[in-house]
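User: I'm curious what two different proteins look like when written out as structure tokens. Can you demonstrate?

Assistant: Sure. I'll show them one after the other, since each token string lines up with its own sequence. Here's the first protein:
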Amino acid sequence: MRRAPAPAPSPLLALLLGLLALDRGCAAQYSSDLCSWKGSGLTHESHKKDVEQVYLRCAEGSIEWMYPTGALIVNLRPNILSSSSKHWTVCIKPFKDSAGANIYLEKTGELKLLVRDGDHSPTRVHCFNFEEGGLFVEATPQLDISRKITGFQYELINKGTASDLHTISAPCRPCSDTEALLAVCTSDFVVRGTIQNVINEEEQRDSIIDVSVDRIYRQKTKIFKPTEDSDRWQGQIKTLLQCGVRPGEGDFLFTGRMHFGEARLGCAPRFRDFQRMYKEAKDKGLNPCEIGPD
């Protein structure tokens, strides 16, 4: 099946981008918040050529644009003074029923379609580097905008940490000793447990790993909860279907990050292998952090 061509920018958009190249602040309404923005295109009803600038300074948040008209320029930056843009990747996940606008990457007046209006494909997370441009959201022509809401969640991922670099570049590749040790220090969850079951979601292109846990070293949110009939915990971790995870015997050290409210697998060495690498690093004084007694 041939894919439909990307929609051409509207004459309005071409005009707006031309003005934008001259002055990033021209003919624009400004809104700012730390993490999330919620607004309405109805405020543009008498000024349909308005571009609204949105400034967000958080690691994660959301955009919710009701009754979209005109366009939004979304400026995302981490709230860290010394951060360098080359170390960050942006990921966005459109709301389930997001509609009414196309989402582009814009760089020096050139556009690259990121999310087409009404695109509800299973793989709904779109990632890009800061160097590739910023987000430009243009409302599409609608006969009735009363039921349209364009929205997405966003996350900024620091490629400077081993666990994030592993997740972005090659999520199925086994971690090196150094990556595994750093993942223990920087991950949102670190637990020792076994794989009880794996559910493959073909449509979502994900595998759901049912994990039985006997030791929690860290969890920032309550991913793993105690079972009623034992002293163990249970929880679920997601990873890409292409990684081919299978149930198996033996203990693993599971690490990973929370992405868009879901626990995503990072490094997961067998626990005996982790004990070896941890002891070797500790004996040499090179272990990046203490994990505590077994």
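Here's a second, unrelated protein for contrast:
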Amino acid sequence: MRGVRITPKPLTSTFTKSRPFTQTTKVKMRLPYAPTTPPESDPTATEIYARIAARRHPRPLIPLDLSLLHSPPVADGWNSFLGAIRTQTVLDQGLLELAVCRVAVLTGAVYEWNAHAPLALKGGIRGEELRAVRILSSTVVGDVDGARRGLEGSVLSERQRAVVRYADEMTQTVRVRGETFEGLKSVGFSDREIVELTTGIAGYNCVSRVLVALDVGENNDKEMKSVEELVESLK
């Protein structure tokens, strides 16, 4: 792999309609992005860049990649873990993205919502279902009884409600109630699917915390895109 140079296309923000950003764009960031190509003197980093670029292909490296690539070994492990969740699982992709979107809402990760809400829609989640995930109150914080009644009376299917309850508890209390866990089994999730849902929720909690802490893409002070806007953009 020595001498391989990764030359991604210029990065364009997923979260603004007109402001492109590249390595030379002058923006206020907590950390500058790592170079889009690895040091020629570091063959190990070159291989890591190549693996990440291969997973992103045909898209360029994204802002999260360029934040993590300050530490190539960490970026490499991240790429492997999240890559497996995204490409080697049997869990319905719509339900996985629904869970990721719920994590984004609960953690205030604007970047994560804007990136994954369109994927939820493409995975078969209806606009009104995605909107419910966006606006329903947490089932473990605040008026818990009211929130749980709201969830039960929502447009979400039984399986979707089970995913929301699980995501809420994993994200906000960490401990999952026995009835919540058994609820996943009762709506037909297999052992493998439960492991994949669990690691998906845990993994994207990790993603959201990195995104928000580093303010990747400078989205912390922005609003999440509306479901209406996302639905319209996919027409």
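A detail about the second structure: The first helix runs from residue 43 to 56.
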